[in-house]
Design a protein that fits this description.
The protein is mainly β. It has 3 domains: 58 residues, no CATH class; 98 residues, no CATH class; 79 residues, no CATH class. It contains 3 helices and 18 strands. The strands form 6 sheets. Strands 10-7-6-13 form a 4-stranded antiparallel β-sheet, with no helix packed on it. It has a 4-stranded antiparallel β-sheet with strand order 12-15-17-16, with no helix packed on it. A hairpin with a 2-residue loop joins strand 16 and strand 17. The two termini are 32 Å apart. The chain binds zinc ion (ZN). Zinc ion binds next to loops.
Length: 277
């Protein structure tokens, strides 16, 4: 392995610039982060090694350029969400449809080589590695535990083509910490996150962090369902008539504009999707 995370300099360093130390270096693969040490032989150039029995198959593939930095919430970015990109989905479940699950949709992969690391929840347990061959023929949807940490793809291996890496765009998939995330209430399950606009006369689900300063106006007829890991969820219906004051309140709540629809909206749900646990 040519790279390791240097705990002193707080950055990835190459083996050529490293010093002998038992504690200083960690595996830069985010799903591993195991202890590594510098190895210098007479015949092989300097490299990092895991301690025996540690490390994962993807560790050898790590290269610093493949780390995808997580950006701060950017709701203009959100408007660019497309159907074949990484995005959030909401499942309303249970007999009385009072429970909900948040999912991360990963678009179908064009290749079976390589793997990605997803953050699906808080802490080290929230990271999960996915071999792209698992989503070679159909998109995947993975359960997310809503949390403060940015959800999404945190790393991919060199085998992942640039065209697919672009679909993993992480900027659009951060959960808002002080406002609501809106989902289309049309459809039975796997409700898509609203990309750019809300429409008068249409119903949506809003989710928000319990500690966020959110209070839904009675005008929206909120019907709240059960909480999930400290997040709340309510179905709301926007009135049919344009209401400027309400539009402003909704903008504060969601960072989204509300417009009048010119045509009947239809939400397209991909038929080729499958669930992976
Ligand atoms: Zn490792």
């Amino acid at each position: 392995m040519n790279w390791a995370y240097d705990r002193v300099e707080r950055r990835d360093v190459s083996a050529d610039e490293a010093v002998a130390s038992k504690q200083r270096y960690r595996c830069p693969n985010r799903i591993c982060q195991g202890r590594v040490f510098l190895s210098r032989g007479d015949y092989r150039r300097a490299h990092f090694k895991h301690y025996p029995g540690e490390g994962k198959p993807s560790c050898e593939d790590y290269h610093p350029g493949l780390y995808i930095p997580q950006s701060a919430p950017n709701f203009h970015e959100d408007e660019r969400i497309q159907a074949d990109r990484v995005g959030f989905e909401l499942d309303i479940v249970g007999k009385r449809r009072l429970d909900w699950n948040l999912k991360l949709r990963i678009p179908r992969s064009d290749t079976e080589h390589g793997s990605i690391v997803m953050r699906l929840g808080p802490g080290p347990d929230g990271l999960r590695e996915l071999q792209l061959r698992a989503i070679r023929n159909a998109a995947g949807a993975f359960d997310v535990i809503p949390c403060d940490e940015p959800i999404g793809i945190v790393q991919c291996t060199p085998g992942v083509p640039a065209s697919y890496r672009e679909k993993l765009n992480p900027g659009s998939i951060t959960l808002p910490q002080s406002t609501c995330k809106a989902f289309h209430a049309t459809g039975i399950s796997r409700l898509r996150a609203v990309g750019s606009k809300l429409y008068w006369g249409v119903s949506y689900y809003f989710i928000w962090k319990t500690s966020a300063p959110v209070s839904l106006p009675a005008f929206l007829n909120p019907e709240e369902i059960n909480q999930n890991h400290g997040w709340r969820c309510a179905r709301i219906t926007l009135p049919n008539t344009v209401d400027d004051a309400l539009a402003e309140q909704v903008r504060d709540l969601t960072r989204l504009e509300t417009t009048r629809s010119k045509a009947i909206l239809s939400i397209v749900v991909p038929t080729g999707s499958k669930e992976i646990d």
